[in-house]
Sequence to fold (214 residues):
Amino acid sequence: MPIFSQHTDVTCTWGIWRISETEDELLAMLPHAETYRGQIQSFGNANRRLEWLAARVLLYSLLGKEKKIAYYRSGRPYLADESASISISHTRGYAAVVVGDLKYSWGVDIEQYGERVHRVAERFMRSDEVSSVYQGTDTWSLLLHWSAKEALYKCLGMEDVDFLDHLRIYPFEVQESGSFMAEEYRTEVRHRMEVYYHLAPDFVWTLCKMPVEG
Fold:
């Protein structure tokens, strides 16, 4: 389908794509479809192929032109022509992309709603972090903590980032959309960042940026 949600301001453009197309339909939306068809052959999982293609269709839709995505050794994506900074995320049924000013490192994350997050909360919830109740459950809050830390990790672009030791989410009350503050302890700077978020019936989405040093 067309873009599920889109926003543009002076520093970035971001969008969310709801994946309802087949591989062939997504390929038809891209220039040089056969090149992309060859690239997805290495993915054994059909959902992974759809998510990969949807992210590129979304990037093409946001920019109105084709851009080659390359990857650092860490797996972090970047535009081969270095015209902007990007971050990509996907979950079942959706892909999310942000394209932003090169003065910042960007992080976007999207997570499908699910109760499984309760079983792994001890891996990312610090003792000084607080979950809150929204719509009768703390599941949304836990998902936002998890998603925000994924976005922060992408902003840092570093190895050996521990979600417990290096990333902290400050207490906030969950709403349908808004922002909250976070801090990283992985660098000497200890950046404080504002994390923007939105809740949909079946996913949470987070976005943050961090100044590029030097």
Notes: The chain has two domains: 3-104, 109-209. The chain has a mean pLDDT of 94. The first strand starts at residue 3 and ends at 8. The domain at 3-104 is CATH 3.90.470.20 (Ribosomal Protein L22; Chain A).
